[in-house]
Amino acid sequence: MKKFIYICLTLVVVYTIAYDLKVGTLQPYNQKAAPVAAISIQNSTPYQKVKISSGDTVLSVIERLNPSSLSKPIPDLTKDFQRLNHGIRPESIQVGKSYNFPVYKKN
Questions:
Q1: Percent of the chain at pLDDT above 90?
Q2: What's the CATH code of the domain at 85?
Q3: Whether pLDDT at 56 is above 60
Q4: Cβ contacts of residue 58 below 8 Å, gap of 6+?
């Protein structure tokens, strides 16, 4: 039984090495990396800087800044927040720090 397990383990290791050498998981060294799309510096969304208090969430602050009912979907709100704050995720905000929150025009 031990011999069978060693043979299977050896076959798995050989297959893994062959696959890695044939297909590979890393980009070859001599190829250039794909160009990353430049992020537009210019923001078309107006914003307001707000200092986060205990209990604040991105959605609660956006609702407070935009008292009229928002017709934008939540994923759009979070994308706007991330764009205004250099990719900071809404779940990562910290109490006491200031962030830029989008202010939308009333419909």
A1: 53
A2: 3.10.350
A3: yes
A4: 77, 78, 81, 90, 93, 101
